[in-house]
């Protein structure tokens, strides 16, 4: 259980922060950038949920929990040393990505194939889901960059890749199953 009785600690006042294993790194480190952007993605999901109801809202709630799992995963370096840790670190697992894929497939059964790119927008929920998608893509790019520099859980990167696809398809669902998608018209303002 987490107990937060004091929010500020002053330990980061000189530009460093603690990772999940207790080591300290500069706040601009690739690892902090990656999990910080996952946190930002989670905040955009919170905004989207203001407009969501029913099963879509429940799915977004599951995703928010997954994103906390993902932040915990990314803030803990050296996945190969997990078996030597004092406790088992929380890691994203393949079944979380599999669930996203199953949900994407289910949502896709309601949609007609796209014949054009779509612009972010339509309903308020769809616009927020597109913001989730683009923020998630940035988190993915940062996680891929981190994976090129340090050992990282490969399932974490896969999850982010699939999640951005989930947001895209959910955005179409939020636009009356794609009927209210805003289509890109190439060169329309020339």
UniProtKB/TrEMBL annotation:
Pathway: Cofactor biosynthesis; adenosylcobalamin biosynthesis; adenosylcobalamin from cob(II)yrinate a,c-diamide: step 2/7. Residues 7-173 form the Cobalamin adenosyltransferase-like domain. It is an enzyme of class 2 (transferase). Keywords: ATP-binding, Cobalamin biosynthesis, Nucleotide-binding, Transferase. It comes from the Bacteria. SUPFAM superfamilies: Cobalamin adenosyltransferase-like. Pfam families: Cob_adeno_trans (PF01923). Signal peptide: none annotated. It catalyses: 2 cob(II)alamin + reduced [electron-transfer flavoprotein] + 2 ATP = 2 adenosylcob(III)alamin + 2 triphosphate + oxidized [electron-transfer flavoprotein] + 3 H(+); 2 cob(II)yrinate a,c diamide + reduced [electron-transfer flavoprotein] + 2 ATP = 2 adenosylcob(III)yrinate a,c-diamide + 2 triphosphate + oxidized [electron-transfer flavoprotein] + 3 H(+). GO terms for molecular function: corrinoid adenosyltransferase activity. The keyword ATP-binding applies. Its EC number is 2.5.1.17. The keyword ATP-binding applies. Transmembrane segments: none annotated. Belongs to the Cob(I)alamin adenosyltransferase family. This is Corrinoid adenosyltransferase. The lineage of its organism: Bacteria, Pseudomonadati, Pseudomonadota, Alphaproteobacteria, Rhodobacterales.
């Amino acid at each position: 259980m987490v107990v937060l009785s004091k929010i500020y600690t002053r330990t980061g006042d000189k530009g460093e922060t603690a990772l999940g294993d207790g080591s300290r790194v500069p706040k601009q480190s690739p690892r902090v950038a990656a999990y910080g952007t996952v946190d930002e993605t989670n905040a955009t999901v919170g905004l989207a949920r203001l407009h969501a109801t029913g099963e879509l809202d429940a799915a977004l709630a599951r995703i928010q929990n997954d994103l906390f799992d993902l932040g915990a995963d990314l803030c803990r370096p050296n996945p190969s040393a997990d078996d030597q840790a004092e406790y088992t670190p929380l890691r994203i697992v393949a079944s979380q990505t599999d669930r996203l894929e199953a949900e994407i497939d289910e949502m896709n059964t309601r949609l007609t194939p796209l014949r054009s790119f779509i612009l972010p927008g339509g309903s308020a929920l769809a616009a927020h889901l597109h913001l989730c998608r683009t923020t998630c893509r940035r988190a993915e790019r940062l996680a891929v960059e981190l994976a090129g520099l340090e050992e990282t859980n490969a399932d974490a990167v896969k999850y982010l890749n699939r999640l951005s696809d989930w947001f895209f398809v959910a955005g179409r669902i939020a636009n009356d199953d794609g009927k209210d998608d805003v289509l890109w018209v190439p060169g329309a303002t020339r």
